[in-house]
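Lecture notes, unit on protein representations.

Consider one protein chain, 223 amino acids long.
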Amino acid sequence: MTESSSSLPAPEEPQRIHALVALRILEVLRDQDLPGDLMEDENPSRTMPRRFGLSDVVQRQIRSFQQEARKGARLTDEQVGDLFRFVIRRPDGRRVFQQVGRSLVEPGRAPGWVRVLPSVARYGVARSRVRKRLRRLFGRQLGGFAKGPFIIEGRSLLFVEHDPGGDACYLLAGLCEAVLEQVSREPARVEHTLCQARGDAVCRWEARMIEAAGEETPTARSA
């Protein structure tokens, strides 16, 4: 007698996301919440132990993720989604996600010869770096590049799945911004122009390199 499909165990969720993503989320939260000057009338004996950045639990979890990241360990979408949902409850969630994205880019600058390439070629270098970094971090392709120097589009991406409000989408914006700045050695701007959380058909990120003269290289919109 064969076992019915309803009695079969559910397949395990794949572990695809690098532990570095979870580590950076907690590190950014910790750094955001470390106390600076005490506010007027603040009682440090009451308020400081409650600050996220001083939590012993958080510090232990950071140390655990540091070990996991060094070993190249992977987490499930749901494990990272739990951290996403923790961030979106904060009023500064969008800023936190953007900073996390920036912190996920490997340190270092592009070779000097890249800087003298035409802007079209520099965008090409940046696109390649972003593709490789996203696949390395998330274990899959997240969206794809549309027509234009630097436009990313995608549907039902990890960010929106775990944050219906759309703040988590700014993680990708921060990552792209940091990569573009590495390549151009100049500031860059990434705008989240469309978002499924706002009712759009797709999520879209459009980027521009800001030249030293203060002008932005154009980014053509996809057809």
